[in-house]
Prior knowledge:
Shape: globular
Radius of gyration: 17 Å
Number of helices: 7
Largest sheet: none
Structural class: mainly alpha
Number of strands: 0
Helix content: over 70%
Amino acid sequence: MKYGESSFDILYLLFAIVSGCVILFRAKAKTDKLMGFATLILGCGDAFHLVPRVLNYFVDSDFTVALGVGKLITSVTMTVFYLLLYYIRRDVYGESPSRGLTACVWALSAVRIALCLFPQNGWLTNTAPLLWSILRNIPFVLLGAIICVLYFKKRGEIKPFRPMWVYILLSFLFYIPVAVGAGFVPMLGMLMLPKTVCYILMIVAFLRMTGRRADKE
């Protein structure tokens, strides 16, 4: 299992980081840059957790702190990624900003990040108390639900983004059992693989979007 999972993790990180660079290279508009930065933030943020995880399989050393801190960084960068998804969606569909909705998205993001920074999360020991796992993920799930609904409402308008709401929904459905129950049932951690596939599909949508714009010019 360690070889398969490690290979998948490495290929995902390479794909995400290279794709982010490609999108930024193609970028002609603000939205393209947002998609590029979102992809790089996702890939680089996940690297802080996945690289120690891969090394833990093959190197005889204590990676407890690295894994815990990596999870903290990934938790923050995932939040930033979904915040950027909100702005990407708004710009792609040319919607006027809703101050109330924007404030809500920012507030949920800020609360999520603030909760992640509390020492009670046990990052340095890589042990997440169930209570704090639930607390820090409540605003994150609410943030994801809002963004999922927003993409769902526009699902038929732009082809590369039509299934985006499905990827967001599935990513959270795979993530929630891991966040809440992986400490008790370690096998639930395997759900992070299909969750990562959802992220890959989001990145593919970004590539298709920027590629389509590049072809038109």
